[in-house]
Design brief:
- With 411 residues, the chain is of the alpha+beta class.
- It contains 13 helices and ten strands.
- The chain has helices at 174-188, 196-208, 214-219, 227-234, 240-252, 256-267, 275-280, 288-304, 307-312, 320-331, 338-345, 352-363, 374-388; strands spanning 22-28, 32-34, 40-47, 53-55, 67-69, 101-102, 107-113, 122-131, 134-135, 160-170.
- The protein is elongated and about 85 Å long.
């Protein structure tokens, strides 16, 4: 879709390797934003050559090779649900075959949403870098220009750009922020959410997830194309109603992949009220998708912690990855009740190292038992527990020892 040229002053840094075929300009949709408002970078490509050029209409959620970064900006912090120093537990488009074309002298524009930041008030520079999504296209079934020696695989010179765009964020009133979001809300409902502007508006709302738009975000789940945006947005709103909405969405969805996303997102924000929901997911079938949901539920229970969480984790699975997640979650549970369950898991030789890591997370102690015969090592650990039960300090995942720390050796 061609977009009208609108907005603010443009800053240009384009590669002008001769002969340039396009000229690229970029700007933000505003210079001054309210804290919590979506930040959009608009990229314009002008055809300055003598032949039509194809351009890609990237799909929803795709940045089409463009990266946006704010060097001094605060990024969102995804929950780390794995064991101490494990580095695990985090939860982690393209062009069409026959693109539209724009003729010499014409301009096409592309919009990119800044993602994964939570910027406070202040001044920043948004660095935009990449290749404008343009390419040679000479007609369906043709890979060579009829008027030049260009081929479809040739680079469109001038499409690469790198630019720093200055912006300012200021604090606004709740009413002012709602006014800024109103155009996004209206656009999100155009064409039942199926048009490109409505999809972009939904993505912006879900990315920023203002609490006053909780009900609007929940509406996104009414269409399969934007249900994941509903999950993403609701998981960033720390309210009882948003968490209840995620559970309700899980219960009514028939999409197993969406269910996996719900559990993974909810694992990072759940409260004790969601413990029964997570526990209900542990038994049952063991298909790959079921186990992906189970994996998120296990780590979510470990994050909640406490004796009730340890009791919910006192189970097993035929899937070794789920069993390993159970051990990691027990190590994060901040309760002495997890220790005898962990020692029971030591009978599974594949979990020996994970059990010792989980015990170290809970107690900040180490044992030289890995590599010994599992039965002998388990006997040693059980004897240690009989001597120390009720007498040792228990630590949480928020107080992990440093990566290079030498933990005291328990005799």
């Amino acid at each position: 879709m061609r977009r009208p040229l609108c907005g603010l002053a443009v800053i240009v840094l384009a590669t002008l390797a001769a002969p340039a075929q396009v000229r690229v300009k970029a700007h933000t949709n505003r210079v001054e934003y309210l804290v919590g408002e979506p930040i959009i970078v608009v990229v314009h490509a002008t055809n300055i050559g003598d032949e039509p050029i194809g351009y890609d209409q990237c799909c929803e959620g795709s940045d089409n090779g463009i990266t946006l970064a704010v060097p001094n900006g605060r990024r969102k912090a995804p929950p780390d649900l794995g064991a101490c120093n494990s580095g695990s537990g985090g939860f982690s488009g393209g062009g069409i075959d026959h693109p539209p074309v724009f003729a010499p002298g014409e301009i096409v524009s592309f919009r990119y949403l800044l993602k994964d930041y939570r910027l406070k008030s202040g001044t920043y520079t948004v660095w935009a870098k990449g290749d404008a999504p343009v390419r040679w296209f000479f007609g369906a079934g043709r890979n060579h220009s009829a008027v030049s020696d260009r081929k479809g695989s040739d680079v469109v010179e001038g499409k690469h750009f790198e630019v720093g765009l200055p912006i300012t964020l200021i604090e606004g009133t709740p009413e002012e922020l709602q006014q800024r979001f109103q155009p996004y809300v209206e656009a999100s409902r155009e064409g039942f959410g199926m048009t490109r502007p409505s999809r972009e508006a939904r993505e912006a709302i879900a990315e920023m997830a203002p609490p006053f738009l909780e009900k609007t975000i929940l509406e996104f789940a009414n269409q399969p194309e934007s249900a994941q945006l509903a999950v993403k947005g609701l998981a960033q709103i720390p309210t009882t109603s948003s968490r209840e909405a995620l559970v309700a969405l899980y219960d009514r969805s028939q999409d197993l992949r969406l269910r996996v996303e719900i559990v993974r997102h909810l694992a990072g924000v759940a409260t004790s009220a969601e413990l029964p929901f997570f526990a209900s997911l542990l038994p049952g079938r063991s298909t790959p998708l079921d186990d992906q949901a189970r994996f998120g539920a296990v780590l979510g229970i470990g994050r909640l912690g406490g004796p009730a969480a340890a009791a919910a984790l006192d189970t097993t699975s035929p899937n070794p990855e789920v069993r390993n997640a159970l051990v990691e979650a027990l190590g994060n549970s901040r309760t002495e009740a997890a220790i005898p369950i962990l020692l029971h898991h030591y009978a599974d030789e594949s979990l020996n190292a994970s059990v010792v890591t989980a015990l170290a997370t809970l107690t900040h102690r180490r044992w030289e038992v890995v590599g010994q015969a599992p039965a002998a090592a388990q006997t040693y650990l059980l004897a240690w527990w009989r001597r120390h039960a009720g007498k040792i300090r228990i630590y949480g995942r928020d107080r992990c020892p440093a990566n290079d720390a030498i933990l005291p050796l328990d005799p």
